[in-house]
Amino acid sequence: MSKDKKILIVDDSVFARMAIKKIISKKFTSISEASSGSEAIELLKNEKFDCLLVDYLMPGINGITTIKIIREMGLTTPIIVISANQQKTILDKFFELGVVAVLKKQVSEDELLNAIDKAIGGGA
Amino acid sequence: MNYDLSEIQKEALLELLNIGVNESTNILSEILNVEIDLQIPSIKIISADKLIEELQEVGKENYSAVNMEFRNSFSGVSQLVFSQDSANKLVDVFTRQVLGNGDFDEIKAGALIEIGNIILNAILATFSNALEHEFQFYVPVFFENYKKEFFEQREKYIGEVVLLGKTLFNIEQYHISGDIILYFNIKSFNYFVNLIDQYVKKIS
Amino acid sequence: MLKENFYKNPFECYDYIPIGVCIINSNYSVIYWNRTLEAWTGKNRNDVLYKKIFDIYPHLASPKYKTRLEMMFSGRPPMVFSPMINHYFFPIKDASGNYQAQTATLTALPTNEQGVFNLVISVENVATLFNRVEQYRLLKNQALDELNKRIETETKIKDYAQKLEQLNATKDKFFSIIAHDLINPISSQYKLTKILKDNIQEFSKEDIVDIVDEIEKSSSHTYKLLENLLTWSRSQLNKFVAKKECFPLREIINLAIADVYSQITVKKINLTIDESCITDIYCDVNMLATVLRNILSNAVKYTNYGGKIFLYCNKNENFTELTIEDNGIGMSEDVLSNLFKIDKSQSMPGTDREIGTGLGLVICKEFIDKLDGHIRAESKLGVGSKFIISLPNCPDDTKNQSL
Known about the structure:
The structure holds three protein chains of three kinds. By secondary structure, chain A is of the alpha/beta class. Chain A has a single domain (2-120), classed as Response regulator (Rossmann fold, 3-Layer(aba) Sandwich), CATH 3.40.50.2300. In chain A, 42% of the residues lie in helices and 19% in strands. By secondary structure, chain B is an alpha+beta fold. Chain B has one domain: CheC-like (Chemotaxis protein chec, 3-Layer(aba) Sandwich). In chain B, strands 1, 2, 3, 4, 5, 6 and 7 form a seven-stranded antiparallel sheet that branches. In chain B, helix 1 (7-32) crosses helix 4 and helix 3 (84-95) crosses helix 4. Chain B is globular. Chain C is an alpha+beta fold. In chain C, helix 7 crosses helix 11 (359-370) and helix 8 packs parallel to helix 9. The radius of gyration of chain C is 47 Å and the shape is rod-shaped. Chains in contact: A-B, B-C.
């Protein structure tokens, strides 16, 4: 069930990845990390994930470009964006790309777990 | 003097700063109605006497700053420092006028205070929440000549520590650089590091 | 020592300051409204108490304000709203109907409940300051504009002054020529004709012929001077527009020579023209003829009896150079350097005591300039002079099939 679901965290900050991991490790055991958009894309070429947690501001390609490329690769994995930046123009771009939710950093446990639930559609 | 933070502590600090700064862009972009990109790519911890050399746009004659003090258990000053050129540019962008590069009259200063206040407010609030520490905050103050009015007034730099974050504003075609500074005395700095440490432990 | 409850209201002291103070709770309801605000807004505190701030001032419900207000209730640092970015926080009109420029500072005020805050809104009227600063900025810009205009005007005036000086020099020259150079020949004509008239009965035929000859010489001379003067004045009025065409140089030279022919013969001067001058050039025929006439006339004037004048040409890719060389009395450095200048041009008497106005060469330079050519002179005192004129060759589309 949720234990088999694979989650990928994409964020350039070690600390941010740590914080998110701490929250979701309560429900999920299979958690991978990528420190940049390009690293994430490489991983996605070979592995399948059930949900992606993506940051917006990253060096190299940012969250929006990363998601665009992932979609162009033909992957339909549900994506949740966790971003400190909540400017309307940025949010609009994310929703255009069909993300499940855009959560504000620092995300609370409830918010994140609920969003993942919604994304994967599975129960606990 | 060694002011080393561990890698993870530095990462935590940088993350909190960026969260704060991003929150401020949410407000700033509403004022201007354009997308604003504000980032702090890196931070440095240095002794206060080295500060002027480390400011961005080193060698510029004049710096202006917005200052917000905080206190409670430990005290310090949060600052947003710009070279006068950058400060003028920033005010022009935000007031959508070209006010020229004249001296900073009260009205221009007011605009810079608001902008600086929004940013520092967001940063301090983020720290306050994350570190679970309630501060007493003071009303923002403007220094037209940062070197003379603030920096040179601190007679002794011994034991004063500065956390310096180089900041870059990208607004439409403008690129404006400034520095975000947290100024502590050594006792306060240690207290602060302690809080960061507790925060990191809580999260990991 | 103050008694407890001396102040009816914990916020009463705010009634005694010249700043507008309003306190709202986390429901956005007004719980305090000071006297200054009452005076400014005309709203009595009883009218606003417990009303939501958005009901009193709807603009505060817009995201620009509401988001920031919302944030403050979690105990954040103070927030500032500056007049340059927001103009006002509470819309209050002054006597002239303009909105009061304000700085508003929002501070979180703790309550008895942990984590629950009220919000103190303090509004400063900075209208006077704001207006004065705007005025100063306007004045400064106006002053700068005026300064720039003045600098522009000064530059223009300097230009005009220079032009005026030049015109003056021209005018002075004109008058001096009339005053000096023409007066003499006309005066002698008058004297001669008077002598003739008074003595015609007594004079022999030879005498009469002699005097009439003198009169004729003098008249011719006067006529030439006057012609020169008119040419020059017309050229000053820019009435000369060069009509360029491709023409054989040799023919123009012949035209010029025809005019000085008699003098050449009288002084027995040897004039030769090299066959390198059989070539076409691009010019206005009349203007060039006038120039050559002047130069040849000078060459003859300043060459001794039995002397030589030699014309030769040098053709380059774009220009043809014509040199008129004599072995006459030559010129000093001084005279040479002032040759083509209007304010310095003077006339030297020729070897046969011929006189002139000094205008000739000034005209020559002006004409050659109009023909897009160059003229210069070289000379050595006691050895002779050279005048070198260069003129453009015919452009391909104007060349004649001649030669």
